[in-house]
Amino acid sequence: xxxxxxxxxxxxxxxxxxxxxxxxxxxxxxxxxxxxxxxxxxxxxxxxxxxxxxxxxxxxxxxxxxxxxxxxxxxxxxxxxxxxxxxxxxxxxxxxxxxxxxxxxxxxxxxxxxxxxxxxxxxxxxxxxxxxxxxxxxxxxxxxxxxxxxxxxxxxxxxxxxxxxxxxxxxxxxxxxxxxxxxxxxxxxxxxxxxx
Length: 196
What we know:
By secondary structure, the chain is α/β, with parallel strands linked by helices. It is built from 7 helices and 5 strands, in the order E-H-H-H-E-H-E-H-H-E-H-E.
C-alpha cells in the first residue's frame, strides 16, 4: 500500500470532537499498555488524570456533545464516564477506537515509542516489533466515523481514544502522508481537538 492516506469523508453529516484520555496510571509509570488483556481492566486514570478532567469540565468551551463514543480500555472508559456524567449522556464503547497495539513492546518503558515512530516515518505499513501498522490504525479509526455517519445526522460526537490513534486519524483527515503522523503536535492527555 502507498503512503497515501485512506480517503476521508469531507462532507460529513455530523461534527466530531476528538479527545485523548486523561493522564493514566500507565503514563505515570512510563509504561506501554496497548493490549486489551491489560488495558481493559488495568491502568485507569491517575490522580493527575482525575484533576485534568475536573478542570476541563469546569471550563468546557467546546460544543456540548450529543453522543459519546470511546475506546473500551479502562483509561478511556473512565475518561468517558466523567464527560458522560457531566453532560447526562449514555456511554458507547467501540473497539475501533482502541490503542494502537505495540506488539513486543507491551509492558516496556514508553521510551521505546520512538523506535516504532522511526519505522513509521519510513513505512506506514510496517509491523516491526509486531506493532499494528499506521495504515491499519487509520483504516479502523476512519471506519468508526463512517459507521457513525451512516447512522446519525446533525450531532456533535465526542470520540475518546488514545494518543497515537488520534494523531494518525488527524493525519489521514488532513490528507497528509500517514508516515508523517508524528510531525503534528501531539494531543496531550485530556486534550480535545475538532476533526477538520
